[in-house]
User: Fold this.
Amino acid sequence: MSEDTDAPESGSAPDTSSLAIDLAMEEARRDPALQGDVARFLRNQNSLVDVQKHHLHEQFKQLRLATLSQRLTIALKLATGLVGIGVIAALGIAMWNAAHAGGLVVESFAVPPKFAEAGVTGAVVSDDLNSKLGTIRDLSDANSLTRSSEVSATHDDEFRVEIPETGVSLGQAWRFLRLWLGHERRLSGNLRELPDGRIALTATLAGADAFTATGTAADLDKLEQQAAEHVYQQVDPVNYGQYLGQVNRQGEMLAAGQRATELAKTDQHCAEAFGYFASVTAGTGDLALAMKRNQIGIGYDPKVMPAYTQWAGILLLLGHDEEALQKLAVLPTLREEDQPPLLQGRPFLTLQWRTALVRALEMGDFAGALSLNCVECTLLSQKLRQAEYAARAHDLPQSRMRLDEISTLLRAPGAAQPANFSGMTNSDLNRIGYYQHAALGQWREATADARAIAAAADSRNLKYGPLLVSRSWAYPLLVVAEARGGDLARAHADADVMPADCYACMRAHGVVAGLEHDGAATDSWFARAVKAAPSLPFAYEEWGRALLDRGKPDEAIAQFTLANKKGSHFADPLEGWGEALMAKNQSHLALAKFAEAEKYAPNWSRLHLKWGEALFYAGKKGDAAKQFARAAQLDLTPAEKAELAKAPHV
Assistant:
């Protein structure tokens, strides 16, 4: 063996193939006769290497195929798992939807072959009823706080998408799920011929007695309407009454209210039904009975909201403002989830909005009332409200702007006037006009507005005992306008027919007595008003004005202070407080009161006029000039214009 042959490294296995070749090559160099044998040996070695390479290549291919097969198997298992998860999720969603399925479903009616041949098939009758029920629902929703459940026709057997190896259609499977898990009420029925040649249409609602209407074949449409109305009353008795009002069948509404209480199944539904029964009772003019029925509703379930708001509304009409606020004070404590399903969502928000609005108005927070977002108003009715509240906040520019916007909307090409707008236009425009004219000292025009408001209220014939309700809330406006316009005799005559326990009425008496310079009577009437409604600021503020006119600024400040405590966002007592401080030669102290009042009545002309005077007397003539200039840009009464002309800056 050659000395040049490398020895293998320690610890490594010898390469026998390489060793054999090296030996053969060495022997061939020593003995040339062996060269042929060595060449053959080398060729055989090359062949062996080729075979080994091919074998290894095949092994690698098989290894790659095995790896790919494993990966495909894993992917297939994952895909199968995902499909299974998807099926389970889809089934879960279907079951959830089925469990929450509600409302009324109209199934196909059975009809005689004669009618089916003429095209009046069971599906046609079903579609007719479905359409009529939908129309009733839409009409009731147009004038209702709540929204009725959906009404839908179904012909499940017509859906023939087959589930493999079952022979059951998807439509049938979905129907069975809803029947099993849902809360739908299904309406079925039949049309049949009677022996006398007439026809009978029978509608059978799950959970209720069947209803049958009869007539001639030509009366089929009328019979379907009768059946639809009967069914709708069973499904949604409260909104059925609203539908009657929309189609001018008010004479049937009281009976519908009574029927709603009879159909109620739970305490919650009884509370809702009696609330509606009370509202239609009020519509008949019997407010005392209406309040009793609201009380019954609250007794069934004190967590249901409508009875409180309706009861409070009646109390406000009667001038019992303090009691009304006590009823409304309960509402913020009530929860949406405790309301009947139809009163959740938007209806719940609407009742909360109404409560906040009434409280703002009763507290003199007219700026706050302006900022509340109405969740139930049309654009036009919202602007009407804003026009009134702006006028009451002494903001005549904004009030007029809102009325201009209304006129523009109504003149727009193709503008549709909402149904509820036409019914409220005259009354609301008179209210807006009253407060605008009062702010301008135009008492003759304000008197005309108040008379129109009273006449509109009288036309509703709402009574409490022997008196029309207009005597409680419309007449106080009228009496004040007449008295401030100088017609004290007429004011006394109209004041005599006002009820004695009405908050606004007592205040109106106090205003009349103050204009007559009867201090004792003035104090007596305002003291009675304060006792009747100690939480409200208006009587305190008006009493303070009367005391200030009598030259008693300290006593006036006491009343203004109380008024401000009751209604902290009411600008009038703050402005009056500032004037009382000026009367005490404390104009420097009045500045803070005027500045605070501006937060709630920034466009009040009198406020800026008096503020300018206080600034002038406080030695701030430059600032005074700015306030006088601001007052001149706004709407002043004739007396205020004369006062501005004589202001110390002129």
Q: What stands out?
A: DSSP finds 30 helices and seven strands in the chain. The two ends are 137 Å apart (CA to CA). The mean pLDDT is 83. The longest strand covers residues 185-193.
